[in-house]
Amino acid sequence: MAPELLAADESAASPASDAFALGVVLWEMMAGRRAWRGMGPLQVVHTVALKRRCLPVSDRWPEGIQASMCELVRGCLAGDPGKRPTAEGILLRVQVELAQHEERATGAAAA
């Protein structure tokens, strides 16, 4: 859940909150584990809302994960909702990433 939603202000829900949620899902996929593993729900709320901590995004994800995807996850997890990418921006970055992946795969197959 996005930090701004933990303030119990339902009006804070926005497309930026959705981008944050996507960032958490992508983080879990790339890290291979649940976010905030070992913490209970209240501990997560305390850590995110009060301590203002976010999930660490490593520059060294599993092999094959491009730096641009790390940047996308960092952007989605930004504490300031105004700094998170829009849905359109996320889609564009994923499309570029997929095209680059296809180029690398085609180049490797031809070699």
TrEMBL record:
Domain of life: Eukaryota
A Pfam family matched in the record: Pkinase
Chain coiled-coil ranges: none
Lineage: Eukaryota, Viridiplantae, Chlorophyta, core chlorophytes, Trebouxiophyceae
Record organism: Chlorella variabilis (Green alga)
GO molecular function terms attached to this record: ATP binding; protein serine/threonine kinase activity
Protein name, as recorded: Protein kinase domain-containing protein
Domain Protein kinase: 1-98
InterPro entries listed in its UniProt record: Kinase-like_dom_sf, Prot_kinase_dom, Ser/Thr_Kinases-Pseudokinases
